[in-house]
């Protein structure tokens, strides 16, 4: 099933279609991610990293809660990425203090991790377990799309290393991460 998780309407449509097709969901894997090189906004006027990496997994999980509860002992796996978790700046959730490419992506994934921890506490009483997974770095379409402009400051000097690290490898690093 294909869905657009960059907008509230897209997430709701995906959830609605899933709920129509299945009675229960044993495992929900929120693995969609967005890493852009320029500041952008969703149809809902939410910064795109925050919309896809934080709001979408939260909204989709909540919308699918009836099917998750029906499974009994369901599990939600929220996949993270980027660098090590960054401190969350509540005044900069949508790059209000400036867009910084890879750092904006990492910040949004840290916010997703925090959201997941709160959601875990909330859904535990519903019999749904929420986990965050960091599979490791892998060469994917997204990581290979990392551009020089997405790197802040002195990290630009490391761009050739990033290109080597995320060179196309016929899916070997992604399989290893999985």
Quick structural summary:
By secondary structure, this protein is mainly alpha-helical. The protein has helices at residues 8-21, 48-63, 65-71, 102-124, 141-144, 159-165, 172-177, and strands at 27-30, 74-79, 128-133.
Structural notes for this entry:
The chain is mainly α. It folds into 2 domains: 127 residues, NAD(P)-binding Rossmann-like Domain (Rossmann fold, 3-Layer(aba) Sandwich); 41 residues, no CATH class. The protein contains 7 helices and 3 strands; from the N terminus they run αβααβαβααα. It has a 3-stranded parallel sheet. α1 packs parallel to α2 and α2 runs parallel beside α4. The longest helix has 23 residues. The chain starts with 7 loop residues before the first helix and ends with a helix. The mean pLDDT is 88.
Describe the structure using short key phrases.
178 residues; mainly alpha; Rossmann fold; 3-stranded parallel sheet; 3 strands; 43% helix; globular
């Amino acid at each position: 099933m294909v869905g657009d998780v960059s907008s509230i309407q897209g997430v709701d449509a995906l959830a609605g279609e899933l709920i129509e097709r299945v009675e229960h969901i044993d495992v929900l894997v929120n693995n969609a991610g967005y890493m852009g090189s320029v500041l952008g906004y969703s149809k809902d006027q939410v910064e795109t990293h925050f919309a896809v990496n934080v709001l979408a997994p939260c909204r989709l999980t909540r919308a699918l809660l009836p099917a998750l509860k029906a499974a009994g002992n369901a599990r939600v796996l929220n996949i993270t990425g980027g660098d090590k978790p960054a401190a969350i700046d509540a005044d900069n959730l949508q790059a209000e203090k400036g867009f910084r490419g890879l750092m904006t992506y990492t910040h949004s994934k840290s916010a997703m991790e925090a959201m997941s921890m709160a959601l875990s506490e909330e859904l535990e009483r519903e019999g749904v377990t929420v986990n965050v997974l960091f599979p490791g770095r892998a060469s994917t379409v997204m990581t290979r799309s990392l551009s020089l402009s997405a790197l802040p400051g002195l990290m630009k000097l490391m761009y050739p290393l990033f290109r080597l690290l995320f060179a196309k490898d016929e899916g070997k690093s992604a399989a290893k991460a999985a």
